[in-house]
Amino acid sequence: MRPVLLHALLYTLVAAASWLGGAAEALADLPYQVTISVKGESDLEETLQAASLLVEQSERPPPTELALRRRVDQDAERLRQVLRAEGYYDAKLEARVELERQPAEVTVEVDPGPRYELHQVSLIGADGGSLEALDIGLEKIGLELGQPARSADVLQAEQDIVLALGERGYPLAAVPDRKVIVDHQKRTMSVTYVVDPGPPAEFGQVRISGAEDLNEGYVRNRLSWKAGDDYDRRELEETRKQLIRTELFTSVKIVPAREVEADGTVPILIELTERKPRSIGAAVDWSSSEGFGAEASWEHRNLAGHAERLDTTLRLSQVFIGANATLRLPDAVRPDLDVVAAAAIEREDTEAFTAERISSSVGVEQRFSSRLSAGLGLSASLEKDDDDEGEDTFTLLGVPAFVRYDNTDDPLDPSSGVRSSAAVTPYYALFAETDTFLRSEAIASAYYAIDEDARYVLAARGRLGSIFGAGREELPASIRFYSGGGGSVRGYAFQELGPLDEDNDPLGGRSVIEFGGEVRIRVTDTIGVVPFVEGGNVYVDMLPELYQVDFRYSAGLGLRYYTAIGPLRLDVAVPLDRRDTDDPFQFYISLGQAF
């Protein structure tokens, strides 16, 4: 009896295993590949590929044929919606599934047909009245008759209407309704926006919340409007940007109240989230001519509740050691006029000279706007030099003045805008043969993104400098101009582009010219390449004669690794006009772009 039961049990197990294997095979995923072809429209094909559910989920195949066909049907409807959104209201779409192939083959063929055009756009008041007096033309809302009838443009125009009215004194404007008519016979679209502009208003009372450790007066001094001005939403955004740039807040929200007061003003609500006022920082860099460098910094951005800022920095490298501190008292004299005091102790030991100095300065800085500022001050320094002329000690009094303009979009990796500065400092040298001279310098850089995503950016820079009133040998070594190295003309060693003495050490000069350009190409989200060309020279005379302008050039290639705090830079450059004393190439590693 037992053998019979044993055989029966074995038979049952084999049958169960066979059934489970078949079931597992039946439940196995059904892999597929998808092809989307569009008749005559390659750009549209890319759009459909990006929107396709079949493409998006191709790495997660369905378990059955029924599930695959359901996915195909869902994707077909999804693609039809995309076609309509792009203005193709008469498109034909056919999807086929071939299960005989391994993997299964899904083919989607699209005949988009003619693209419908925007025929008419009307704006009417919510009460049926005309809005002509508000002067909201099609160019103000990004539409043009005859353009493709894309739904995204129609929806964006609705937002642009509200924004345009917000620039014309209407803080509560809205578009409560929109009517769209598609004429399939004429293949056109007509759109009517029902607009409720709301009452016009002037800027009214400002209410600030979230300023716990900061005096509200500091915030009010940065408002770009005055009470009684016509409401303009752009002023809110400009003020928000100014407050964010102070680095005192993690978030700034500025909105009008939901009602206009009886006196015709609209209260403005400013909601702030304060940032911790203290921060520390560190950075390292390396170049083949300067060696390793390290920098540590500490700052406090709100010492006594009025955004008083103290910055301290310690810099150590193979050619430089120094510490400095800067104290800024904002609005100290009047709004937008700051008092700035600074002190430093430094030692430089380069091929050109060795210098030890103590310096201090105090001055005022006027902010004309968030982009433009100027300053004037007094400075004093005591410096001991050792260069090709021997040892000397200089006591200098200066009156530094500067103008600075910066409308770039990022401090470490700009893709648009201009950054420029011009500085002039008359010096009076105590106990020296030549007691007065003037140093002037101008630096500018510009950035332009070729594409909308700023993956291709053109960047250029220039530098001009001149010293009047004293010969080269009468000037402190650190006051003279030098060129070469990172941030200057890459490819030449630090400070070594220019005249050399008999030991091939840099002499420095009374004038300098530098220029350069590069193309910043972002290959992936984290990797970029940067080819560049630079040139320039240093001259003994305060203004080089035309026949003396013998520029030396360099070229190189850089790699960028983009991080959350800025791009990590690795550059390799070679001198194109190499002298016997020049190295064949130079390396540079640092955080941030070269300029």
Explain how this protein is built:
The protein has seven helices and 26 strands. It has a 17-stranded antiparallel sheet that branches. It has helices at 2-26, 42-51, 53-56, 65-85, 151-166, 216-220, 233-245; strands at 32-38, 92-98, 104-111, 117-125, 174-183, 188-196, 202-209, 249-256, 265-274, 278-287, 291-300, 309-317, 320-334, 337-349, 354-367, 372-387, 390-398, 401-406, 417-430, 436-449, 456-468, 511-522, 527-539, 552-563, 566-575, 586-591. With 595 residues, it is α+β, with helices and mostly antiparallel strands. It starts with a helix and ends with a strand. Helix content is 16%, strand content 46%. The model is unreliable at 1-27 (pLDDT under 50). It has five domains: 1-28; 31-111, membrane protein fhac (Ubiquitin-like (UB roll)); 117-196, membrane protein fhac (Ubiquitin-like (UB roll)); 202-274, Roll (Ubiquitin-like (UB roll)); 278-591, Porin, CATH 2.40.160.
